[in-house]
Write a structure and sequence with these properties.
Blueprint: E1 2-9, H1 11-23, E2 29-34, E3 43-49, H2 53-62
Antiparallel strand pairs: 1-3, 2-3
Length: about 60
């Protein structure tokens, strides 16, 4: 089961978190959930398997998000 561990505003932030999680060995999905007309402030869910939530949170804290 996939679990949301972070809500990112903007594609750049979502991709940075995704990269950090992948480098930490965590499976990750990024899902667009809100679409801004200008395309700059889209919202993304960062999802990981339920078994990897704690590890994902630790990585996100380490990269200061």
């Amino acid at each position: 089961m996939w679990t949301v561990v972070y809500m990112a505003q903007g594609k750049e932030m979502a991709m940075k978190i995704q990269k950090a999680l992948e480098e930490g060995g965590v499976l990750v999905k990024v899902k667009l959930i809100g679409k801004d007309a200008g395309g700059n402030d889209n919202c993304y869910e960062i999802l990981v398997p339920a078994a990897e939530v704690e590890e994902a949170h630790n990585i996100i804290i380490d990269i200061e998000f």
